Amino acid sequence: MTHEQLLSALDPALRARVSSAHVANGTATLVVDASGLGAGARSELENDVERVVSALPEIEHVRIALTAEKPVRRILAVASGKGGVGKSTLAANLALALKRQGVKVGLVDADIYGPSQPQILGNTGAKPEAREKQLIPLIGAGELPVLSIGHLVPAGKALAWRGPMTGGALTQLIEADWGDAEVLVVDLPPGTGDVQLTMIQKHRPAGVVLVSTPQDLALIDAARAGQLFDGAGVPIIGLVENMSGYACPHCGEVSDPFGSGGVEQAAERLELPFLGRIPLSMAIRERSDAGTPPALEENELSAPFDAIAASVASWLEESA
Ligand SMILES: Nc1ncnc2c1ncn2[C@@H]1O[C@H](COP(=O)(O)OP(=O)(O)OP(=O)(O)O)[C@@H](O)[C@H]1O
Asked: Is 117 in the pocket of ligand 1 (CB under 6 A)?
């Protein structure tokens, strides 16, 4: 059996992936290029090549080495100064909107204080598997690849972690097998703690989106979180105002429980781009709690997320 005979047994799509093939003493050794494939497609490719080659006469063993160009993957951090301002809601919907706009995206939930992505993306209780010590992301609503601290430890457990443990967990999530994802949206815990420091020092985000509600206190904290990233030279892509303007589902009158326009004014003051506002809406909360976030499909509810995603996508393109 020559290596030409071996190659001709493979169909053209498989053959195109083989960068070298060699047969000696009944053992076929192939180097197969798996660039651009996710975890599932990679093992399918390996199985397909193995099945064809092992069925050939004179072949007793098949050894396959998969290689892949490391994709250029950028981290987009979603941060806030305070908890409960809608950072997780924005992170999930931003990731889904980016995905619909054609960006290959994965979502990391690094919020040790309250990992909420399993609930938002409807895969609470799922446990990721690992291959060669590397975690394989789970698939959440909208086919979004996702890994959360909440998938690794029971709710509340991660809270007691000390600095090095939180850093280790973040690294495990970020260095998981994200396949061909070009962007990882990272939902950070609120504030300026260990996770943020590890993020800046070890995994350097391409940029940060800051979320705040319009109240003064939330804004002051958001500005402080912004300073941490800015001081470390991580660009702030812009500010998002969440929970602005509540439209009464009964009479339609719009009120502003947390004030209005505060984030846009703060963005102006801080000379940062303002990315948009998301209304306070019962439907946004209900859909997030039910594991069917609004940005799963394009509609009235997804519109503010879609607009923010479009600005973020242009920013990523321009800064590449
Ligand atoms: N625009 C909105 N309209 C209505 N409810 C919202 C909106 N944004 C977020 N919520 C709800 O507010 C609560 C807090 O939101 P979320 O978990 O996204 O905030 P967070 O900043 O990530 O909080 P934490 O710091 O606790 O993780 C959730 O119940 C969520 O569904």
From this structure: no
CB atoms within 10 A of CB 180: 17
> Is the CB of 278 inside a 6 Å radius of any atom of ligand 1?
yes
- Is 82 labelled as part of a ligand binding site? yes
Domain count, the chain: 2
Residue with the nearest Cα to atom 27 of ligand 1?
114
Q: Which domain holds residue 148?
A: 74-319
Q: In this structure, what CATH number is given to the domain that contains residue 269?
A: 3.40.50.300
Flag whether pLDDT at 179 surpasses 80: yes
**pLDDT for 250 beyond 70:** yes
Residue that is last in its domain, among 34, 49, 67: 67
The whole-angstrom separation of Cα 286 and Cα 71 is: 36
| 282 CA → ligand 1 middle, Å | 11
Task: Name the residue among 268, 248, 296 with its Cα closest to residue 93.
Answer: 296
The two counts, helices (H) then strands (E), for the chain are 12, 14
pLDDT on residue 27: 94
pLDDT surpassing 70 at residue 156: no
Residues 95, 174, single domain; the answer is yes
pTM of the model: 0.82
